[in-house]
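Long-time lurker. I teach an intro course on protein structure, and each term I like to show students one example going from raw sequence to a predicted 3D structure in token notation. This year I'd like something fresh instead of my usual example. Would anyone be willing to generate the tokens for the chain below so I can use it in lecture? Attribution to the forum is fine with me.
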Amino acid sequence: MTFPSFGNEPITEDLKSEAKLFSNLGAEAARLLVGTGIHLTDHFRGLYLKGRISLDLLEKCIGELSEGVTELMVHPGSLSRGSGAGPFQSFSTLDREKELKSLLSPAFREAVLRARVSLVSFREALL
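-- Reply from a regular --
Happy to contribute to a lecture. Here you go:
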């Protein structure tokens, strides 16, 4: 299994283990779905960017996409402005807010256009 070198931060052993687990589960699921009519994307990206997505990393990722349909895993969000801890408080992090800002940046949209990538919904991708 190869690990993309997006960014300067090394990929932790925990993240490598998680990626290997998800990769193995995905391969097994794909094998089980053959002939069921359930469609899959050709590629999956984003796990190695978990917790560190930035505009620079997104631009690099887009520039290195393979031919076909790629699912990009993102989890944008914003910091909770309210008081107290709710059930989704753990999803309200600075990393997710940085990810949201990166995805909404005009520079990200320009990078998508430069790379001639079409952003589509999951439904559109699998038609």
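Some talking points for your students: The first strand starts at residue 43 and ends at 45. The mean pLDDT is 83.
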